[in-house]
Each structure stands twice: as C-alpha cells, then as structure tokens.
Specification:
25% helix; binds S-adenosylmethionine; 244 residues; 4-stranded antiparallel β-sheet
Length: 244
C-alpha cells in the first residue's frame, strides 16, 4: 500500500489550505463536464478526498462512489451534508476494486502524480478500465511538467513564495520524480512537509490508456474546453474504453 500523505494533520486543514480550489468558479465547470459524461450512469472518483468535486456532482443527481487511501480525508467528506450517502472504499486507487460499473471515472487536481512509479500509473489505468462500461470515459486533470521553467543544471524551482507559505519543487529528471516541499506558517509556527510525486507527460498517459484498452477522445487545457496548446500549463484529458 502506498504511503498516506493525507493524514489527520493535512486533512484537518485541507479545505482551508486549498480554498481557491473550492471556489464555484473552479468547481462548477468541472462538475458540469463530469455530469455531462456521466449521463444516466454512475461516476467513480479516484482520490475522492473531502468531496470537493464528488459532493456537488452527487447533488446534481449523479450516483458517485469513491476510493481513497486516507481515512482522515474521507472522515471530512462523511461529516459534510450528503457525504455519508457516497460510498467510499479505503485503499490504493491503482488496485482497489469496488462494486458496479461506471460511465465515467475521474482523477483530478494532479492526483495521478501521487502514484510515484510508472508501474503504479499503468496499473491505475488498468484498474479504471476494469470498472468502466464499454464506451465509458476516464478523465484526468493534471499539470504539464514544467521542465521548460527549470534552468539547465538546476533541480529546484519555487512555485509559491507568499507570506504564509513557501513551496519548492525538487526534480529528479532521470526518474521523473518530483518532491514538493512546503513550509507553512500555522498559528505563528513554520511547519515543513514534503510529498513525493511522479510527473507524467500527456503522450505517456495516452500510451497508458492504450495499454488498458482506451483511446484518447478529448484533450483540453481546462474544464470549459479551452484549447490545449504548447503553452498550456495543465490538461483535462478524456480516454474512452474501447476494448471489452
Ligand atoms: C490532492 S487530494 C485531492 C482530493 C479531491 N479529489 C479534490 O479534488 O479535492 C488527493 C487525494 O488522493 C488521495 N490519494 C493519494 N494517493 C492515493 C492512492 N494511491 N490511492 C488512493 N487515494 C490516494 C489522498 O488521500 C487525497 O485524498
């Protein structure tokens, strides 16, 4: 089982520290996009967390289930209105199975990168394919690796320098490894936390989809179907299950 980086200490501050990601301007387009793909079918969220997307999606009438490694994050979801109506399996979303089949499965907010090896990311696509109806879709929202912004010979890039938070990404290019280091000022005390990720290229995800019997259907730079270009910092990609 992968290490849980979303324990009690992170979970209790998750919604507050990610407040910008809970803004309706961010959440609503994602929910519109996913509700459209779900149609009359059910949705499976990998890394459901505290329900940022799952709760409003279920309030739209979509049957949502989730998988998450963190008991602490899921406890926050269950404490919210409507949260206990969403079934959640505790486990690794690369391997954990749940009952039923789904018209859409989704993995947002860079969470594919929490799987720190290519094997785990490939296994995740295969696990999703096993849960999708034929024609069902897998949606990933993830950043494009920012290697063009890393000066030659350097390994560390700051991504946030603000009064209460300093964030640095440390790259290991040979292994596509990335450790995000956070220094946060909490109640007057600086706290440090580091989380390992594996960054992944769009074309590499397409091959993972093919290995799992899916083909790329759409790729956008945002939930409102903005064009994906060479300048895009992130992508929202949809693969469709083709094989039985
Ligand atoms: C960045 S949070 C995103 C939560 C939610 N999807 C959102 O958009 O707010 C990542 C979530 O994925 C979960 N997670 C990370 N790696 C996981 C894994 N291998 N298996 C299951 N859950 C995982 C974490 O516990 C956490 O709840």
């Amino acid at each position: 089982m992968p290490e849980d980086h979303f324990g009690e200490r992170v979970a209790e501050r998750y919604d507050e520290s990610s407040a910008d990601m809970f803004e309706p301007a961010v959440v609503d387009p994602a929910v519109d996009f996913l509700a459209d793909l779900a149609g009359d079918g059910a949705a499976l969220e990998l890394g459901i967390g505290t329900g940022r997307i799952a709760l409003p999606l279920s309030q739209r009438g979509v049957r949502v289930q989730g998988i998450d490694l963190s008991e602490a994050m899921v406890a926050r979801l269950r404490a919210k209105p409507g949260g206990d109506a969403i079934p959640v399996a505790i486990g690794d979303f690369a391997t954990t199975t749940v009952e039923g089949t789904f018209s859409v499965a989704y993995l947002v907010f860079n969470t594919i990168n929490n799987l720190t090896s290519q094997d785990q990311q490939v296994a995740c696509f295969q696990n999703v394919a096993a849960h999708l109806e034929p024609g069902g879709c897998f949606v990933i929202e993830v950043g494009v690796p920012q290697l063009q912004r890393l000066p030659p010979g350097e390994t560390v890039r700051p991504f946030d320098v603000s009064p209460n938070h300093l964030g640095f990404d440390e790259y290991d290019i040979a292994s596509q490894g990335l450790i995000s280091h956070h220094y946060s000022l909490v109640d007057g005390v600086w706290e440090a936390a580091s989380t390992p990720f594996r960054y992944v290229w769009p074309g590499e995800l397409d091959l993972m989809g093919r290995l799992a019997g899916m083909r790329l259907r759409e790729r956008w730079s945002g939930w409102k179907r903005e064009s994906f270009t060479s300048e895009s910092r992130k992508h929202v990609s949809v693969w469709e299950r083709t094989a039985s």
